[in-house]
Design brief:
The complex is a heterodimer. Chain A has a single domain (4-87), classed as Helix Hairpins, CATH 1.10.287. In chain A, helix 2 (28-53) runs antiparallel to helix 3 (57-87). Chain A is an all-alpha fold. Chain A is elongated, with a radius of gyration of 17 Å. Helix content of chain A is 78%, strand content 0%. Chain B is mainly α. Chain B has helices at residues 3-8, 13-16, 18-36, 44-63, 79-105, 111-129, 133-151, 158-189, 194-203, 209-225, 234-241, 244-269, 274-297, 302-323, 326-352, 369-372, 374-388, 394-408, 412-438, 451-469, 472-481, and strands at 69-70, 75-76. A two-stranded antiparallel ribbon of chain B has the order 1-2. The model of chain B has no long low-confidence stretch (mean pLDDT 90). The chains are: A mainly alpha, B mainly alpha.
């Protein structure tokens, strides 16, 4: 049997990869995918803990996280379409009308 | 209903969420109403939105003080949640009223605007009542998602789209951090219910690096939501790009809701581990006051300046949490109550300045306002004094009670830093007063006043003055509403 710590380690690695992607990638779509990766690492955590504790709460939480993540991406893509129409770019470095 | 389901919730539980159901239900209905009514009768939608807030407020009033805990302890109706819901109702109604003319000027007069505001309101109400990390998370997302869309509501404006994109990416990023913290807390304590987490912290041995990591992630995640340093980078951009009524709404509503959740999580769930989070919150608070207030001095755009000022105000309010006492909690609640009025008031005037080609976004646009429009300038003066914390306005009393809570807990150092930073803050607020009164106007002012906007300004002005002169009743109310530690 795979010990719980392996799952936690996997989730920590995924979370770091996701966070690094958000902070370093320049393409908005890739940034959104990286956020998705972070959320999925959280789901692995919840499932592993739920299995370890023999408690359903973690699994229920995961279902809600997946749902909310889908809603969040829907809004983000909607905003992205509006942004690309006005800016004609996917690169976050070129989106710079606001600064100070 | 079969017996297994009945064990988790009873039909009576739905009574407890009646106000939330009214708001969410009316938001869905308004989408249909918006299609049904002809273009010339569009004022029906905001009128119904205000009406539904009023109905929800009435239900909340009827349910107040019942102390019901519904859905197996996931949702509670206590004085604390009632007090915050009062703030949210006021902010939502004000936001609708100040939008009426503005969204016609900006040509974004769509029914969805009010629908999204109502959805956000229902999310904030769930946040205030949530006593389980799951309910709190869902409420947080329900409050945030509509605001992301509202920030980008000026579809033709590059700034607005950009602000929305930055806001949603950083918002989702912070949610992920918050969730990771929640998952660790769940793994360490075996529960997501705040009361049970608190009990597990008292009995079990849950210290160690993993718990510290969980606390840091919760502080970071919530820090983003209240725009506290160093998680405030999104605030100036989102505030500047958003339609001004939405900026006002964001700074008063979702922010107060985030504070409601922070205090609930840290003072109810994690209170036994007070020593492990007190320093982290204190660092965020001091950083927010210093960076927010000093950066605000450098701004030329009034919306950006108010964004940094709101970062500073978040710092003051967090100090009440650092105090970790019931008095501290009550002082934060009173602070947020006062902040809602002065914030909506000052943004009301910024909205008034937006007419035809005049944007009213820059601080320099207010040059000489005192010479030509005396009453408007006087109202602005009072709101600015209140934000700066000058007596006899409400802003002074609010700061005073936070400082008192700190001093009573022996944290004099923090109170001194906070007082020094209010002096810095006074500089950039009073600079605007100088511009308004000491300079000659460059051109005629065109003010876009409307009945809704004037109504908000008068109520906000009365509240700021009345709460400053006679704060007793509302301070007692906040004390009474604070949950026992």
């Amino acid at each position: 049997m795979v010990p719980v710590t392996w799952y936690i380690a996997l989730s920590a690695v995924l979370f770091m990869i996701g966070a690094a992607g958000v902070l370093t990638r320049r393409n908005v779509i890739v940034v959104l995918m990286s956020i998705e990766l972070m959320l999925n690492s959280v789901n692995i955590n919840f499932m592993a803990f739920s299995y370890m504790l023999g408690d359903m709460t973690g699994q229920i939480f995961t279902v809600f996280t997946i749902t909310v993540a889908a809603a969040e991406v829907a809004v983000a893509l909607g905003i992205l379409i509006a942004l690309v129409r006005s800016n004609k770019t996917f690169n976050v470095d070129e989106i710079d009308a606001l600064k100070g | 209903m079969n017996s297994e389901v009945a064990a988790f919730f009873s039909p009576g539980d739905f009574l407890a969420i009646l106000p939330e159901m009214v708001i969410a239900g009316m938001a869905c209905l308004l989408l249909l109403v918006d299609i049904a009514v002809p273009r010339t009768k569009k004022c029906v939608v905001p009128a119904l939105a205000v009406l539904s807030v009023a109905v929800a407020a009435w239900f909340s009033y009827e349910l107040a003080g019942s102390g019901v805990s519904a859905f197996s302890g996931m949702f509670v109706l206590d004085g604390y949640s009632d007090f915050f819901k009062l703030i949210f109702y006021i902010v939502a109604v004000f936001a609708i009223l100040v939008s009426l003319r503005y969204i016609r000027t900006e040509e974004i007069d769509l029914g969805e605007y009010y629908v999204l505001l109502l959805f956000s309101l229902s999310g904030m109400m769930i946040m205030a009542s949530g006593t389980d990390l799951l309910t709190i998370y869902l409420g947080l997302e329900l409050a945030s998602l509509p605001v992301y869309a509202l920030v980008g509501f000026l579809q033709k404006s590059r700034k607005s789209n950009e602000a929305a994109m930055k806001y949603i990416i950083l918002g989702a990023f912070s949610s992920a951090i918050l969730l990771y913290g929640i998952s660790l807390i769940y793994g360490l304590t075996g529960t997501t219910q705040l009361a049970a987490i608190s009990a597990a912290l008292v009995t079990g041995d849950v210290n160690g690096p993993l718990f510290t990591l969980a606390v840091i992630m919760l502080v970071a995640g919530f820090g983003f939501k209240v725009a506290g340093f160093p998680f405030h980078m999104w605030a100036p951009d989102a505030y500047e790009g958003a339609p001004t009524p939405i900026t006002a709404f964001m700074a008063a509503g979702p922010k107060a809701a985030a504070f409601a959740v922070i205090m609930r999580v840290f003072l109810e769930g994690l209170y036994p581990a007070y020593d492990s989070w007190q320093m982290a919150i204190a660092a965020v608070a001091v950083g927010s006051m210093v960076v927010g207030n000093i950066t605000a001095i450098l701004q030329t755009s009034i919306k950006r300046m108010l964004a940094f000022s709101s970062v500073g105000h978040a710092g003051y309010a967090l100090l009440g949490l650092v105090a970790g006492s019931e008095e501290g909690m009550a002082s934060v609640m009173f602070y947020l109550f006062v902040y809602a009025f002065m914030n909506l008031g000052i943004f009301g005037i910024v909205i008034m300045m937006r007419k035809d080609s005049q944007s009213g976004d820059q601080i320099s646009h207010y040059t000489g306002l005192g010479k030509s429009n005396r009453l408007t300038a006087l109202a602005m003066l009072i709101f600015l004094f209140s934000l700066a914390g000058i007596p006899p306005t409400a802003g002074f009393i609010a700061k005073f009670y936070v400082f008192m809570a700190l001093i009573n807990k022996g944290m004099v150092g923090l109170a001194v830093i906070a007082a020094l930073m209010s002096a810095v803050a006074a500089y950039y607020y009073i600079r605007i007063v100088m511009l308004m009164y000491m300079r000659e106007p460059e051109k005629e002012f065109a003010l876009a006043s409307s009945r809704g906007l004037l109504c908000v300004l008068i109520i906000a002005l009365a509240a700021v003055v009345a709460l400053g002169v006679y704060p007793g009743y509302f301070i007692d109310l906040a004390r009474y509403a604070a949950f026992p530690l």
